[in-house]
Amino acid sequence: MDIGSIISIIVTSLMAMVPIVLTSVGAVWSERAGVVSIGYEGVLLMSAFFGAIVAELTGSGVMGLLGGIATGIVFGMLHGVLTVYLKGNHVIPGIGINLLALGVVPFGILAYWGTAGQHQVTVTLWSWQTKYGKISPMIPVTIAIAIITWWVLFKTPLGLRVRAVGENPEAADALGINVEKYRFWSTVYGHALAGLGGAYMSVAWLGVVQKAMSAGRGFIALANMVFSGWNPLVALIGGWLFGFFDALATWLAPLHIVPGQFILMLPYIMTLIIVAGIIGKARPPKWDGRPYKRE
Amino acid sequence: MKSSISDLIAAFNFKALLESLIAIVIGFLIGALVLLAFGYDPAVAYSALFGGALGSTNSIASTLAYSTPIMLTALTFAISARTGIFNIGAEGSFYFGAIAAVIFTNIWANMWFGLAMGILLGALWSLPAAFLKVYRGVHEVISTIMLNWIAWFFVFWLVVGPYANPNDPNKTIRIPESARLPLIGNTNLSIAFIIAIIMAVLSYYLLWHTVFGFGMRASGLNPRAARYGGVDPNKAIIWSFIIGGVMSGLGGAMKIMGEPPTYAISQGMANVYGFGFDGIGVALVGRNHPLGIIFAAIFFGMLRAGTALMQIEAQVPLEIIKVIQGIIVITIAVPGLYDLVKNVFKKG
């Protein structure tokens, strides 16, 4: 393994890190406020689809990313209404969102572009082409989002209130904090970041819309969130680690040392091992996933 | 027997049934809007859909055949859900059940042996998530999704590698004739459908009429109280995973052993993919009740069977039914749906 392949693995891992880190950081914020969602997988997939449509309609990659964020916001609001205001179960809406994505995306690819299963996106976000692979401006943006989210969550009064409604909503309520409002907008923020990550996949990274392109990243991001101990900074490092396994699999695949399928399993096996090793020490916010009803 | 029938009615909550029906109606209405938005005619599409699902003996047989695998994967989800677990792992056990049927019927061409090995591999594949949950506290949604992907790649390797058909390398070798499930009458429907119904009834009996099943439901409702009552919730969780794996493994095996004319896993594993996920939708529409699941599975089977005619007569991509299913599940997630709809009608 020469220095060139090491650099290209690192470049690929940084590109692969973006959707996982964005989704993990969003999920950390939402769960710190007490709202669990397993619908990020579906949000990634649907925002990859809608983000590509917006990018092609407007001729702008940036607008495509915004389209992805808008998709995330819509589903975040849906999840927020069901769980925060109507006090419903936190897991079932996500199952529905994931099932919906499995229909909307293949149906949409066929009905909108007239191709089956896959569409090559014609308008993509600018990226820096190097001999080690392309480098997207979304890499520094993602790092900045993780750091800023950490800073707001742990160093500002806003973050304190968000953590309060997830840790002890009764006390927060007694202090005059509007628990429902904070939980709702935290859910929206979490899904919006996943939406950005999804649009990045189609508009900036892979340049295609495929019916199964999220490939479990929404759930890997949740595993990474647990791994991080609900901390955006650790989620940034963990997300890079998961991106690294992704890149390693991409690099190993053409070498044919073992059948390709075993290499493609790698990110999922590593996720299981890491999550199995870390849990027990990890403690979720106390009111995570529990609806809060005022007495 | 008399008491069990009144139990059955009590367990089959009327309000829950109405909520499922409301969700189905909303699913079709929003589905119609999506069709209109993409320039299709919903009336033509839906009439072709139902014609294709119920129009003839063959289409009814096809509806029931499609309902079979998802009835079993729905039981996987529902039994775990009653034990307080979100088991999304039916998909992985289904792949293993399917490949087990291919492998072992080609060792000993016996139907019962094939089914038994499908059940065994399906159940074994459910164990990692069970143990990770009980001993390491790993959330089952994360572990089962990862295990589904690992199962996908592993079984895919078996399908294109060691068990590929030398004459048709995109498919696996076929189930020997003497190990195939008998067909009912002159249709393409195999006895898999009847076995699935029996499994649903057995699940109902297990959950509501045995001490064991009571323990499972008790730990699902309140693990701490169950522990006081002498039930070990961890044991209940492990068993719920195993029974779930049995159902999906059986479903996978029967999908391959009872599906004419292929009797093999097809290219890209297309004839075994997605049944675990569809089963979750079936379980939720059937309100996690084994008897509700029988009807919900037939309903979902109807949608799937109808897509063939819908594609021909209305040129609508078959994925529209997945859009409708997703909307139905999201609608079911609306708490107090029944009261909500009742209030809307009162005001209107």
UniProtKB/TrEMBL annotation, chain A:
Chief localization: membrane
Swiss-Prot/TrEMBL keywords: Cell membrane, Membrane, Transmembrane, Transmembrane helix
Keyword Phosphoprotein: no
GO CC field: plasma membrane
Gene Ontology MF terms in the entry: transmembrane transporter activity
Membrane topology: Multi-pass membrane protein
CDD domains the record matches: TM_PBP1_transp_TpRbsC_like
Record's subcellular location: Cell membrane
TM ranges: 7-29, 35-55, 62-85, 91-114, 135-153, 188-208, 220-242, 262-280
InterPro entries linked to this entry: ABC_transp_permease
UniProt-listed Pfam families: BPD_transp_2
Entry protein name: ABC transporter permease
From TrEMBL, chain B:
Matching Pfam families: BPD_transp_2
One GO CC term on file: plasma membrane
Highest taxon of the lineage: Archaea
Transmembrane regions: 21-40, 60-80, 92-109, 115-135, 147-164, 191-215, 236-257, 263-284, 291-311, 323-341
Principal localisation: membrane
Membrane topology of the entry: Multi-pass membrane protein
Keyword field: Cell membrane, Membrane, Transmembrane, Transmembrane helix
Subcellular location: Cell membrane
Statement: the UniProt record of this protein carries the keyword DNA repair: no
Keyword Repeat set for record: no
CDD domains reported in the protein's UniProt record: TM_PBP1_transp_TpRbsC_like (cd06580)
GO molecular function: transmembrane transporter activity
Protein's UniProt name: ABC transporter permease
Upper lineage: Archaea, Methanobacteriati, Methanobacteriota, Thermococci, Thermococcales
